[in-house]
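I am still getting used to backbone structure tokens and would like to learn alongside you. To get us started, please write out a protein record for me. Once you have written the record down, we can walk along the chain together.
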Amino acid sequence: MPLIALVAAALAIGFEQLIQWKYGPLGIIAFVALSVGLKARNTAISGLGAVILVMLLAQSG
């Protein structure tokens, strides 16, 4: 079980670094809002983070 948690944490950190590298500080703020909203089961915060990420993805495409 600790190995699975370690791998999941490594993947999350890697994804977070990729978002920050590609989309800058706004991307990391959106990712943090999305993850905090999901953990807290707050749909307003997670929705805001998701909308910002979608807007950033649509802008770069």
Helices lie at 2-40, 43-60.
